[in-house]
Amino acid sequence: MKVLNQQFQIKYHYPVHFTTSLFDPANRALAHFLMEVDTRPEQHLLVVADTGLWHAQPALEDTLINYFHALLPHYRLYFVQIPAGEEAKNNPIYLEEILRSIDRHGLDRHSLVIGIGGGAVLDLAGYAAAIAHRGIRHIRIPTTVLSQNDSGVGVKNGINFLGKKNFLGTFAPPLAVFNDISLLHTLSDRHWCSGIAEAIKVALIKDADFFHWLETHAEVLLNRDTSAMEQLIYRCAALHLAHIASGDPFESGSSRPLDFGHWSAHKLEQMTDFSLTHGEAVAIGMAIDVLYSGKAGWLDEDSVHRILRLLEKLQFSLYHPLLEEETLLEGLREFREHLGGELTIMLLRAIGTGDNTHTMDHHLIQQCIADLRETSDLHI
Amino acid sequence: MKVLNQQFQIKYHYPVHFTTSLFDPANRALAHFLMEVDTRPEQHLLVVADTGLWHAQPALEDTLINYFHALLPHYRLYFVQIPAGEEAKNNPIYLEEILRSIDRHGLDRHSLVIGIGGGAVLDLAGYAAAIAHRGIRHIRIPTTVLSQNDSGVGVKNGINFLGKKNFLGTFAPPLAVFNDISLLHTLSDRHWCSGIAEAIKVALIKDADFFHWLETHAEVLLNRDTSAMEQLIYRCAALHLAHIASGDPFESGSSRPLDFGHWSAHKLEQMTDFSLTHGEAVAIGMAIDVLYSGKAGWLDEDSVHRILRLLEKLQFSLYHPLLEEETLLEGLREFREHLGGELTIMLLRAIGTGDNTHTMDHHLIQQCIADLRETSDLHI
């Protein structure tokens, strides 16, 4: 018997730009980047656009077309519109629509797919780009707080299948990410706030100073202060990127440290038919795991209260009647099943310091939920 | 404006085993490997089996079950049967069948999908494994000459979509490959021979000594000498692996040196509705590009004749009436479109030495086809 050992490594690199008015011809960030990476005399670009954003900013498509016309006239633009939110990932018709468009317009691996929208549309666009021709280059332009500070800067994509969130997907780093703060202006207050949940998450597990910053800026963030939000997004994205690069970018292990509070959040999103936003569900999920960390003796009581207070200050509702259903606990199994290996849940040792556990006591979880119900009753 | 530069690298490693009677409990290769990479107390394994092989070797499933029962009793085995050949990649129902099975049996990223079969079944199984849960570990057991010496040891997977070969797919290195020579015994003579085409290809572009070896062993290979075939597969696989590791494993450039002779081969497979095997089409495609290399003044006439003689000796038919159709030339565009960038076709400077060209003269291609028609008329 003989054995040949195959071995190689692949280097990945992509810039994440933080800018404003990305499609103003005075802003050369996107044009400069494209001229650097692309020397084709004619280029094909498919824009996968979030209908939510397209309705909120009706001039955007023309602004974009004018930008390319002025600075990159050799680009041929095509558009596909995809409904905002989980519908984009639930209905396979949208994946097919993007793939057919890629085929119809003759896009190849060196062409470009640009996703512009919230996390769900970007997840879908990234997935379509990743599997067509074994990977077309794609650029992400996230247009929600949540996607600018979290999912949009990462390396994952995916769609739902057989009723399971992200059952299909790949790891496929983008060619670049452009975070444009001006695209957030038309977000509803609900989505503006709920995206902050992921910033709290990353602060809790990685960066006590950032948590303190969030406490002191909660008020101005609520009042939609652009400069505070810019700082929040930059800092949260930086922590997210550093984590990916330093750890296990394509998640070959069993640990999901960036998914603090997510085992119940994912399940709750499903159970509520996605009537909760991802951020709202994560806020509840974090509240459960923060209380659990306290009851397990990992986290001091004062920290528990500080965290819950910040979540409430940002107007997150920390209870939902469906938390009482047994089904919620299936979230633990599904969370494990997605990565495989041993169940690995991150809890908190302190604000800014996460640590893994491999078992969760169902009785203790129920006590945490009872606490949340009682506190919510007080508020009514 | 600020920019964060994300950067990381991913290391890939997988062994390619060359063995015989893989599922004989006396052969510990597979069991040892699995015990090394997997320490779970209970493991789930989905076998994606090629019906062609399953019919030809009816005892195989029991042999496999007995092997695991004897050596890895903590493995739970599940089976999905997929029709052999291009049908596996053409009909989306088979992809869905594998994905549903992965879901039903609760496979996670650390579970295993083993594909056993010819190249098409392995391409499908690898694709399903790559997109489910963003990548379940998969092992390939190729069971044709073609897949053992070529596609099965590589990093690609894929299925056909919108009538285009491999329109959907990813680059996803396997966890391991096991080449079992005993699985080839039930191959038809046609498939036994046609797989040799890829060995000739890699010899032509990389290794003149190997080409000479093929010339001297053509007779015994035709007579199904196992030891000669073992040597051929090992050498061809080794060249293939070395090429992948040294070059551009995930094909971010425009060059496709391992696809010598393939621009017309892919098109011809499509045009004949896959009534030609891949190897048969590649033999014709190489004949065209060898003649072209000669007519373009790159390759001396003696070498052209030696190559055509070897192909004929191995009973490849080097002409097909559909070569005369204009459609064939669309193969050039589709070949370019798949990778993107500039058209890049490998031709020969000498036996063992390939070189790229970026234009193909249609008139010269037609002359090559006319030559093949005339030679084939002589044989009738």
Observed structural traits:
alpha/beta, six-stranded parallel sheet, two-stranded antiparallel sheet, 10 strands, globular
How are the elements arranged and paired?
The structure is a homodimer.
Chain A: E1 2-19, H1 29-37, E2 43-50, H2 51-56, H3 60-71, E3 75-82, H4 87-90, H5 92-104, E4 112-117, H6 119-131, E5 137-142, H7 145-149, E6 159-161, E7 164-168, E8 176-180, H8 189-194, H9 196-206, H10 208-222, H11 226-246, H12 262-271, H13 278-295, H14 301-313, H15 330-339, E9 345-350, E10 353-357, H16 362-379
Parallel strand pairs in A: 1-8, 2-3, 2-4, 4-5, 5-8
Antiparallel strand pairs in A: 6-7, 9-10
Explain this structure.
The structure is a homodimer of 380-residue chains. Chain A is 48% helix and 18% strand. Chain A is globular, with a radius of gyration of 21 Å. The first copy, chain A, is an alpha/beta fold. In chain A, the strands form 3 sheets. Chain A has a 6-stranded parallel β-sheet with strand order 1-8-5-4-2-3, sandwiched between helices. Chain A has a two-stranded antiparallel ribbon with strand order 6-7. A two-stranded antiparallel sheet of chain A has the order 9-10. The mean pLDDT of chain A is 95. In chain A, β4, α6 (119-131) and β5 (137-142) form a beta-alpha-beta unit. Chain A has 16 helices and 10 strands. In chain A, α9 crosses α11 and α13 runs antiparallel to α14. Chain A has helices spanning 29-37, 51-56, 60-71, 87-90, 92-104, 119-131, 145-149, 189-194, 196-206, 208-222, 226-246, 262-271, 278-295, 301-313, 330-339, 362-379, and strands at residues 2-19, 43-50, 75-82, 112-117, 137-142, 159-161, 164-168, 176-180, 345-350, 353-357. At the A-B interface, β1, α5, β7, α11 and α15 of A face β1, α5, β7, α11 and α15 of B.
